[in-house]
Structure to design on (210 residues):
């Protein structure tokens, strides 16, 4: 199957399987999404959704968050892992939002990535899902699947190469929905362990490199 045929099939099959793409992280606005995505680093979305209700009950705005101290934030988010680093980042980025951005989450990659604890993937999720700007956040599921599908002659070595490849192959208007569809497929049919090619609705057709 040629590259263009693979791309078309993947998009059609994912649209058939996942016509709706609810954001896996519970949130109410750009700020709570930003905090949830930051917490999801090396942690499952399920665990984040178990932790954030207690955090957001105390602080769902930057103004409320800086009324807590870092240790209090750390105790609440401890089940998410990396709590010392994440709690400090949450407190400091909340301060930055208040001091530099008038209390509103900034709507630019540059300003988001300048915040403590906010990398390119986190900024991409906020830009795409909170503000609707085209972005292609790449997590471990997407990186794994794009490598498996053999969409380029050279295998992407890291998430940066995978993001660049996805942006080159898939139409810009599909990015915000497609990255979630690929994640859903990875969780349901195409896991890292115990992957059965014949049972995956995409790998069974386009092939599997790994």
């Amino acid at each position: 199957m040629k590259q263009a045929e693979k791309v078309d099939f993947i998009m059609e099959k994912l649209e058939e399987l996942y016509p709706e793409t609810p954001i896996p992280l519970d949130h109410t606005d750009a700020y709570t999404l930003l905090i949830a995505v930051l917490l999801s680093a090396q942690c499952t979305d399920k665990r984040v959704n178990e932790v954030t209700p207690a955090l957001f009950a105390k602080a769902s705005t930057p103004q409320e968050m800086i009324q807590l101290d870092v240790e209090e934030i750390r105790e609440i988010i401890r089940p998410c892992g990396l709590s010392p680093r994440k709690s400090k980042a949450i407190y400091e980025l909340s301060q930055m939002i208040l001091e530099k951005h008038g209390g509103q989450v900034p709507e630019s990659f540059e300003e988001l990535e300048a915040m403590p604890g906010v990398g390119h993937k986190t900024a991409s999720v906020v830009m795409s899902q909170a503000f609707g700007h085209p972005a292609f956040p790449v997590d471990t599921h997407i990186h794994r699947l794009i490598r498996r599908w053999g969409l380029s002659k050279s295998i992407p070595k890291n998430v940066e190469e995978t993001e660049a490849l996805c942006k080159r192959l898939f139409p810009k208007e599909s990015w915000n929905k497609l990255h979630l569809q690929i994640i859903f497929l990875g969780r349901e049919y195409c896991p890292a362990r115990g992957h059965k090619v014949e049972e995956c609705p995409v790998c069974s057709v386009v092939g599997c490199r790994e």
The first helix runs from residue 3 to 17. DSSP finds twelve helices and no strands in the chain. The mean pLDDT is 96.
